Amino acid sequence: MPQFFLQDDQIVLKLIVAVVLGMLIGIERVFVHKEAGMKTHAMVSLGAAAFVVISELIARKYAIIGGLDPSRMASQVIVGIGFLGAGSIILQGNRLSGLTTAGGLWVTASIGMAAGFGFYKLAVITTILVLIILVVVNLFEVPIRKILADKDKPAA
């Protein structure tokens, strides 16, 4: 077993980076009391990274076969995450909820894919931008929503 970690240290690094970055996004979701938290985001990112690594390994193993496109598996990850995200969107009366969760899962999959391909800078920068969107933009969004809610209340 230790031999695997020494021979395939890049694979292990890709998967660990995907998990850590996914968990960072999940931490923010836990702070705002959302269902899809650290474990969900970590697993989405890890799964996406694992599928990318599998794509690369298949491409290497079967390189002699012409027309093999390793990006096909990665493109299917995007579709699969779309279905997962769609399941998190709920219409309650005239209020739609779960859109940020769906978007977060989708972008977390892209972070996992970036880590899986070894594009660590892209994965880290994307994680930072997602956290800025979720944390900093929320600081502006909450007061705006409060103003709009007060404006929509009927006058007494």
Helix-strand layout with pairing:
Layout: H1 2-7, H2 9-31, H3 38-61, H4 71-87, E1 90-92, E2 95-97, H5 99-116, H6 120-152
Antiparallel strand pairs: 1-2
- Largest pleated sheet: 2 strands, antiparallel
Low-confidence runs (pLDDT<50, min 5 residues)? none
The tally of helices reads: 6
State the strand order across the main sheet: 1-2
- Taking Cα atoms only, what radius of gyration do you get, to the nearest Å? 19 Å
Distance between the termini: 72 Å
Mean pLDDT: 85
Give the percentage of residues in beta strands: under 5%
Number of strands: 2
Q: How would you describe the shape? A: elongated
Give the fraction of residues assigned to helices: over 70%
Domain count, please report it. Answer: 1
Overall SS class = mainly alpha
Oligomer description: single chain
Helix and strand run: HHHHEEHH
Description:
It is a single chain. This protein is mainly α and 156 residues long. The protein has one domain (2-131). The protein is built from 6 helices and 2 strands; from the N terminus they run H-H-H-H-E-E-H-H. A two-stranded antiparallel ribbon has the order 1-2. Strand 1 and strand 2 (95-97) form a beta hairpin. The termini are far apart.
Write a concise keyword list for the protein shown above.
156 residues, mainly alpha, two-stranded antiparallel sheet, 6 helices
Structure, briefly:
By secondary structure, this protein is mainly alpha-helical. Helix content is 78%, strand content 4%. The protein has one domain (2-131).
